[in-house]
Amino acid sequence: MRLFIAFAITLIASQAVFAFELKPYKDKLFAYPPVLETSDGGDFLRVAYDKQRDIYDRDSVPLRRVKDQYITPGLSFSRRVRSYDSPNGTQKYFTIGKRRNARVTVIYLYGKGGNRRQGVNDRTFGGNFNRLQVLMRDNDGVLVTPDYTDFKKRGTADIASLINEYRRRSPKTFLIVACGSMGGGVCWRLANSPATSNKIDGMFLLGSHWSNDFLDSLVVRERGKEIPLYFGHGSLDTVFQPRTQLDFFRRIKSINPGYPARFVMFETGKHGTPIRMVDWRREINWMLSAK
């Protein structure tokens, strides 16, 4: 009888973890535009991005200051500046949310020209980072936006140290790394490394690039530890070619048809469009359900 009760408690606990999802927050304002095309069993969407609607009608100062209805004010009182140690020295980062035992951890890595402030800037990118902060704070999660050395091996070592630190603080957390543009270089090195890939539960590539090494990894080729991948790309991106990124996504699907990967193409969008337009709640909840 005791054994049965213990089993039932374990089952209920596991179901509770599986059933966890982020609560709604301004969902209508941040939902994707109308869908123009769907394929790959619904894992690929082409959506109707519109510069007039999604920038000029959304921002009071285009690209610099979103209108008030898109944000929750006062988050600066909840944010903290902290530091972490890595093989390259001490780096600073912002954090908002639970310091320990977080249910979800999101580490956002900026691209070229960025810094730790990008991921906590409330007013730029259409208020999308403000929404991400609220989603983490109000769902027992934590958002971490660090500085790091570069987009290559040294920067990867920095973020690997940060991941280890947050794994110690929250052993049961669902840990996501979200990479903008050239930050994807760090994302892919982490995913391709046996030492770090098993510590990552989801990955965002926002206007970023691809990794042929990932196609050859056991993560893709063997059923086991699979990292759910979200690709967001603008169809007019001139930094990283959208066709090459889409081909990469479909190569993953051809190797492993059941691999948890999604691709959203923002029609007429440019390089920074996915950071502005990604529906954080929709995609994080998908990652939570895919595990």
Your description of this structure?
By secondary structure, the protein is α/β, with parallel strands linked by helices. It has a single domain (2-290), classed as Alpha/Beta hydrolase fold, catalytic domain (Rossmann fold, 3-Layer(aba) Sandwich). It has 12 helices and 12 strands. The chain has helices spanning 2-19, 27-30, 51-56, 128-137, 153-169, 184-192, 194-197, 212-215, 218-221, 242-255, 273-277, 280-290; strands at residues 35-39, 44-47, 59-61, 65-66, 80-86, 89-97, 104-109, 141-146, 174-180, 202-206, 229-234, 261-266. The chain has a 10-stranded mixed β-sheet, with helices on both faces. α5 (153-169) crosses α6 (184-192). The longest helix has 18 residues, at 2-19. The protein is globular, with a radius of gyration of 19 Å.
Outline the secondary-structure elements.
Elements lengths: L1 H18 L7 H4 L4 E5 L4 E4 L3 H6 L2 E3 L3 E2 L13 E7 L2 E9 L6 E6 L18 H10 L3 E6 L6 H17 L4 E7 L3 H9 L1 H4 L4 E5 L5 H4 L2 H4 L7 E6 L7 H14 L5 E6 L6 H5 L2 H11 L1
Parallel strand pairs: 2-12, 7-8, 7-9, 9-10, 10-11, 11-12
Antiparallel strand pairs: 1-2, 3-4, 5-6, 6-8
Protein name: Alpha/beta hydrolase
Organism: Pseudahrensia aquimaris
Keywords: Hydrolase, Signal
